[in-house]
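User: two proteins, same treatment. go.

Assistant:
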Amino acid sequence: MGSSSPNIKSFYKGQEIFKEGQESSVAYMIKKGAVNIYKVQNNEKIILARLGEGEIFGEMGIISKGTRSANAEAAEYCDLVILTDQIILKLLDQCPRTVQYMTRLLVKRLHRTGEMISAKGHRSNFTSICNILDLAYRTHISMDREQARKERNHDLGLDYTKLCKTIRSIILVSQNEIDAVISKLKSLKIIDAIDLRTGKAFPDRFIQISDPDNFLEVANNLFKELQQTAYTPTSELQIVDIYEISEMLDSDPKIIYKKIAQEDFPETMFMFDRNKVSDWASEKEPDYFSKVKKKKKSIEELEDIEDIVYVDNATLKEVFNRLGYHKLGVLMSIAEDDARKKILANLAKKIAKIVQDEVRDNVDETEAEDVLTELYEMVREIKGGDKK
C-alpha cells in the first residue's frame, strides 16, 4: 500500500482495505478507482456494492461506534481520501439534534438487522428491507426544515438509489430482490414511487410511504400472507430472455418484440439489470433515448399494416387504385396514426373523404387479414416487375 499524501492512501486491485469485525477508526472517500464492499457467508464471497469515485464508505461503524459490518477491497487500483472519526462526527454534529439521534438509531438498528440476516439467511429479506425502509423514511421526514431545504428534491421522498445502497450495505441482498419488494409494496399502494425525469437515461426515483404510522404492521401482515404462498423476494424474479418467453408462449421472438412495442405486455413484467443497462446507455448519444428510428424493411418482410410506411408512394398509389374504397376503409380501420397518414397522403382529397367514411370500430379479423395479404401481394408484384 502506497500513499501520495498524509490523508490519501493507495490500494492495488484485490488489496484488502478493512475486514468485517475490525474496529472502525476511519472512513474513506474514493478519489480514484473503485471499491467492492462484500460479505462472506458459507465460504461464498457476496458482493454487496461496487463503489466509484466520490462515494464514501466505512462511515457507519464510526457513527454507531461499532465494528466494521462488512469487508472492503480495491476492485481496481484506487486512491482513497481518509476521513477520520473526528471529521465524520463533526459533520454529523452540524445536523439538527433530531437528525443526529435518528441517524445513530438507524445505524444501530441496521447493524442488528444485519446480524439477524447473517444468522437466519435470506428468508426474512422482505421484512428486513421493510424495516430499513421504515427507519430511513422516518429519519427523512423528521429532518429539520432548514436542513431539508438543502437536500435536493427532499419533498419528493427518499432517494431510491441511496436507499438501495444503504440496504445492500447492511444485508445480503441483491438489487433485484430490493426491486421486487418495492414493486410488490407499490402494486398494493403501500408505498408510492415517484419518477423524476432529468434528461438522463433513467429517471431519478423517490419513495414515499403512504401511511408511515402503520407501515410496519401492514408490511408484516403482508409478509405472513405471502409466506402462505411460498413467497420469497426472488420468487417473482425467475428471469427468462425473449427467446424463452416466445417458446413458453408458443410464439416467435419477433412477435413478442412487436407486442412489447405496442404496449401489449404490462410494464410490471420488465426487469433490467441496472448496472448493465447503465453501462450500455452511457455509450449512447445524448438524444438516443428521446426518439425512435424505424428500421427499414425489405419487401419480403412486410406483414403488418404499420409496415405500409416502408412502401414508396408511387407503388401505394397504384395499389390503392386497384383495391377500391371498401378495402381501403378496412385498412384505415386497423391502422394506427403513422399508417393512416401514409394511406391518406396517397389518396386524392375526395377519395380520402370517402375512405374515411368507410372506417369502422369493429372489423372482421379474417377480412382484415385477407385485405392486408392482398395489399402486400400487389406491392410485391409491382416491385418485382420493377426489377425485371
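Protein 2:
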Amino acid sequence: MSMSQSYTALRPEFREALKEAARLFPTPFYAYDLQVILERLERLQKAFPGAEIFYAMKANPRLGLLRRLLERGAFVEAVSLGEVYRAYKAGFQRNEVLLNGPVKTPAMLEELNRIGIPILGLDSLADLRRAIKMLPKAKVLLRVNPDLPIATHDHLATGRGESKFGILPEEVGAALEQARHSHLEVLGLHIHLGSALEHPEDYSAGYRVMDELYRTHGPFQVMNLGGGFGLGLDLGKVGTQAISLARKHSAELWLEPGRYLVAEAGVLVTRCWGVKRTRRNYLLIDAGMSQLIRPMLYGAIHPVEPLYKNPLKETYDLAGPACESGDVLARDITLPEPQEGDLLAILQGGAYASSMSSNYLDTPRPAELLWTGQNWEVIRRQQTWEALLEDEL
C-alpha cells in the first residue's frame, strides 16, 4: 500500500528563504517553517478545544522545535529513555512528559527513578508488573489494542489485533485489577490506532471501543485517544466525536499528534547533479535514503517542488547517492528540466525524515534550519567527519 498524501505547496516567503539558505549551507539540508507548525497546533487546538496536546516527539525531536511547542502550552509524548532525557533537557516537567512504548526494561525504570519519573503508558502485563515493583507510585495509563481493521500501511496500523501494541479489550479488566490493587495511580486508558489515518471511520470505531471500556471499567480521570491524524483528515469531524466522548465520561481528553504538526512544515533540500538513462530516466540528486528512508520503508510518496524554472519538462525518478537499488526518493515525477546544481525541495519532510536518518555509508547527518519569518536559525549543525568516528576505539 503506497502512502499518497494531500499536497500543500510551500508558502512563497518560505520558498524564497530556501533559496537563500542554499547559498549559505551545503545540500542536502532540512528546513522547517515555524509558522506552519504553529498554524497546525492552532488548528488542532481549535478542533479539540480543551484537550491536552502531547506532541509525539519521535516525528521530529529537535530541541529548537520542542522549546517552541513548550512555550505554547504543548506537552510531549516520548517512546524511549533518550526521548525522555531530551524532553527534560528542553524544559518539560515530569507531569508534561508521557512515556509510551512496548518494552520498559528494569534498567530503563531504574534510570527513570534517577532522572525523574514521567507519566507512564503501560503497554503489556509485563510492563505493568515491572512498574508495580519498581515505580510503585507512578502515574500510569494502560494502552488498549482495539483489535480493529485499521486502513493504513501495515507497518503503521498499531490498532490491529495482530500488532505488538497494547492490551486486548478482553484483558483490560484483569490488568486494571492488578493496577488498582497496587500503589500506582491509574489515570485512564490509552488508544492509538496507527499513523497517517485519513478515514474518520477508523476513529469512530476506535472511539466505540473506548466508550464501552469506560462504561464498563470507569470512571477515569483521563481519556487518551492518541494521534495518527493524516494530513488530509477531516479534523473537525473527528474532534467533535472525541470531545463528545470525553465529556460523556467526565474525563480529560489527551491527544498525541506528531506528523500532523510538523510534516508539512519541513522540507529536504537537495541539488540536481545530472540525468542518467537506463531503462528508466533518473535525475541524480545528493539526498537519499540516509536522509529520507520513508519511501523505501513504507512506500511513502513525498511531493517535490522545483526551486528553479524551465519551460521544458521531463519525467524522472529521483535517484539518491547510496549504493542501493532502493535509494529512489520519488518515481515518475514531472519536473522542469534542470541544470546541474538546481534545487529541489522534497516536501512533507518535517516528520520522520531527520528523526529516522542514519549514518549509513558514513554519511554525515545534514544541517537542520528553522525559518522564523525573519531569519534562519541553525537548530542542528551539520555533522562533521570527526563526529562520525568519535565513539569508536
